[in-house]
């Protein structure tokens, strides 16, 4: 905004100076021509028509000069409007670019989340399929075992043999005997001696039961005598306990009377001490509460300052981006201004040559006095032009240097902040990944543990059911059949152990496979991350190259980032990049065509203005002495107008600087008012704490004085007590006044802290 207006004013001032120079170069020619006309036509008479014609020509020349000035003003306004339009178009392009970048980021994030969800679903499906396959295998083995157990149960039902059948089976070899017959034979061998023992034991049991009945009768009589003795004993114990309690009560009453009489002053002293400690703790609690309130207020102010600082950081980032774009614009415009300066220098050289030619003509027609005056004027004008051009060049160089330095400093700070932010983000990502791995490992361990526990419980339940059925079937059978069944059970347990070992072996192999898949997944993720970083860098480089207007600088940026290397990219991404570059090419072509049209229009305008200038010079050559004086006065007024314009611009600069100083002073005033309010708040808090401590101290003094007065119990003591209280009130008032006067110092310390 203001820099562009200043540049436009500088260009307009340079154009006006070039026009002044061109007009001043024509003055000597007109004077020379008029003098030559006077010498040549001195003897002729000037008619009235010729004078009117010259006046009309002079008026036409003045109108043309005014028209040229208005055309310059219109051109300046057009340039201002064009610059504003360019700024708005650049802002629109920036916003569109940001929108496209955000849309691309959103698409990439959606694709990544969809791919991650798809991968997780695939992993879950694989795990479920493996679990279902393992469950089917275990169900199949369980069904086979159940069938075998049922066959064994059905085969071991009828195991009773007669003695003849036993003798017959014993005579046969073992190969020809079936499992049922073999088990029945072994069962008979075990059961027959047990049956004999059972008969003997039944006889013994009958004799033992008779003896037991006798002993029971004796036991009942003994129990009755024992109950009587126990009842008598309980009555005696209750009497003894009652007597002992009465004795203890009497002793306690005696001891209580002695203890109260001896320890009454100690207890009273302890009560006083406890009351004093209670008051001290209350005072401390009040002070701590006040300090806590002050700390909470400071915390709120600090949180507000943090919020304002965050907003200022965001604003500074936006300012940095705006200054970067403005720097690019100024660099381009600086190049244009340098070209224009070169053209002005060429025009200046041409003006110098024309002035030298006119000076030679002037030397030929005038005396030495006018020659020296003209040389001095020419030297002063050349010196003024040189000083102005050097000042403009110095100002442009200084502003560009300051701008580049400020931009470099802002970019360094932004780079440091981005590096710190990246390190924090990487650390947070690592912590999150480690926690995710730990939780995933714990979940899998728990899942495996629960699966194994469920399998074990199901197997145990089946075994228990099998054993219960078998116990109901063989509860009346002998120990031989039980031993045989135990042998079969051990065989099944061995098979079960083999199956569990096979299960654990498969489990370890599956865990190993899962670990391998995790490592492969991590490697693929790292490769994918590097690939995405390469693609993002490639996108940024292509977009940066598309934004640069100069083709050589764009090629330099591309080759600096390794353009032309074998970087794998997708067809969709290449299509997006080509679309962005095509849009940029179309935009540049439109700008090129518009600039060509403007150049052609400017060329035609310059041709017309040059023709008008030649016609005006011819008319000025034809004018005589009084009209040349009028033209000189018009030029002097133009010079005065330019001086006044420069003064107005300098005064506007002074006004802007004064406004900045006023805003700075208002900011300082607001800061001082905030500090003053904070100081007053701390001063009030300190006054409250001081008043509390003074009142507490006065209460202690009053209590101590009144206790002394009660002990003395005379009129003199009462009088002295009141005399003590009056100075205490006086001293407390003085102390409170002094503390109120000294209170701002701690408040200032708190504020500074």
UniProtKB/TrEMBL annotation:
This is Progesterone immunomodulatory binding factor 1. InterPro entries: PIBF1. Keywords: Coiled coil. PANTHER family: PROGESTERONE IMMUNOMODULATORY BINDING FACTOR 1, PROGESTERONE-INDUCED BLOCKING FACTOR 1. The keyword rRNA processing does not apply. GO terms for biological process: cilium assembly. GO terms for cellular component: microtubule organizing center.
């Amino acid at each position: 905004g203001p820099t562009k207006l200043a540049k436009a004013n500088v260009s307009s001032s340079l154009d006006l100076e070039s026009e002044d120079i061109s007009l001043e170069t024509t003055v000597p020619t007109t004077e020379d021509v008029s003098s030559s006309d006077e010498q040549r036509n001195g003897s002729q008479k000037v008619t009235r028509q010729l004078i009117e014609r010259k006046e009309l020509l002079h008026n036409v020349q003045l109108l043309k000069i005014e028209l040229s000035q208005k055309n310059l003003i219109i051109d300046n306004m057009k340039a201002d409007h064009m610059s504003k339009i360019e700024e708005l178009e650049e802002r629109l392009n920036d916003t569109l670019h940001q929108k496209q970048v955000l849309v691309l980021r959103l698409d990439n994030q959606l694709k990544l989340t969809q791919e991650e969800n798809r991968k997780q679903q695939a992993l879950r499906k694989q795990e479920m399929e493996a679990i279902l396959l393992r469950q089917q295998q275990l169900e199949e083995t369980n069904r086979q075992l159940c069938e075998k157990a049922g066959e064994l149960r059905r085969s071991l039902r009828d195991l009773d043999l007669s003695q003849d059948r036993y003798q017959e089976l014993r005579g046969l070899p073992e190969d020809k005997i079936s499992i049922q017959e073999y088990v029945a034979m072994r069962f008979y061998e075990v059961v027959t001696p047990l049956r004999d023992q059972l008969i003997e034991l039944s006889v013994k049991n009958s004799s033992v039961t008779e003896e037991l009945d006798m002993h029971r009768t004796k036991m009942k009589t003994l129990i009755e005598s024992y109950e009587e003795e126990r009842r008598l004993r309980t009555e005696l114990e209750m009497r003894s306990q009652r007597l002992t309690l009465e004795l203890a009560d009497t002793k306690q009453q005696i001891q209580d009377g002695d203890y109260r009489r001896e320890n009454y002053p100690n207890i009273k002293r302890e009560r006083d001490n406890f009351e004093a400690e209670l008051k001290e703790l209350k005072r401390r609690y009040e002070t701590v509460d006040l300090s806590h309130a002050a700390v909470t207020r400071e915390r709120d102010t600090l949180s507000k300052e943090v919020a304002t600082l965050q907003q200022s950081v965001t604003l500074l980032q936006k300012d940095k981006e705006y200054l970067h774009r403005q720097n690019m614009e100024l660099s381009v415009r600086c190049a244009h201004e340098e070209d224009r300066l070169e053209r002005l220098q060429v025009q200046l050289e041409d003006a110098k040559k024309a002035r030298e030619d006119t000076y030679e003509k002037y030397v030929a027609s005038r005396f030495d006095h006018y020659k020296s005056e003209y040389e001095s004027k020419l030297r002063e004008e050349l010196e003024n032009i040189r000083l102005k051009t050097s000042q403009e060049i110095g100002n442009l160089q200084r502003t560009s240097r300051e701008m580049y330095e400020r931009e470099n400093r802002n970019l360094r700070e932004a780079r440091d902040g981005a590096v710190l932010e990246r390190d924090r983000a990487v650390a947070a990502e690592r912590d999150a990944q480690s926690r995710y791995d730990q939780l995933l490992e714990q979940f899998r361990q728990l899942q495996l543990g629960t699966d194994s526990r469920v399998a074990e419980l199901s197997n145990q339940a089946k075994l228990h059911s099998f054993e219960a059925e078998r116990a109901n079937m063989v509860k009346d059978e002998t120990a031989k059949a039980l031993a045989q069944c135990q042998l079969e059970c051990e065989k099944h347990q061995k098979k079960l152990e083999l199956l569990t070992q096979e299960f654990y072996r498969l489990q370890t192999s599956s865990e190993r496979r899962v670990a391998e898949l995790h490592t492969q997944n991590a490697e693929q993720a790292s490769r994918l991350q590097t690939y995405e970083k390469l693609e993002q860098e490639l996108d940024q480089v292509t977009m940066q190259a598309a934004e640069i207007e100069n083709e050589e600088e764009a090629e330099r940026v591309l080759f600096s980032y390794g353009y032309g290397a074998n970087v794998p990219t997708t067809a969709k991404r290449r299509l997006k990049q080509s679309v962005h570059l095509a849009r940029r090419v179309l935009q540049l072509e439109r700008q090129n065509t518009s600039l060509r049209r403007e150049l052609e229009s400017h060329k035609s305008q310059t041709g017309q203005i040059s023709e008008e200038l030649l016609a005006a010079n011819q008319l000025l050559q034809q004018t005589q002495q009084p009209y040349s004086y009028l033209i000189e006065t018009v030029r002097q007024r133009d010079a005065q107008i330019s001086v006044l314009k420069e003064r107005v611009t300098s005064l506007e600069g002074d006004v802007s600087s004064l406004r900045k100083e006023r805003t700075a002073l208002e900011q300082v005033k607001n800061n001082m008012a905030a500090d003053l309010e904070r100081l007053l708040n701390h001063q009030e808090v300190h006054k409250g704490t001081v008043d509390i401590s003074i009142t507490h101290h006065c209460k202690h003094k009053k209590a101590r004085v009144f206790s002394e007065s009660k002990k003395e119990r005379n009129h003199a003591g009462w009088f002295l007590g009141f005399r003590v209280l009056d100075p205490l009130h006086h001293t407390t008032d003085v102390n409170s006044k002094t503390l109120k006067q000294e209170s701002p110092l701690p408040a200032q310390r708190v504020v500074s802290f």
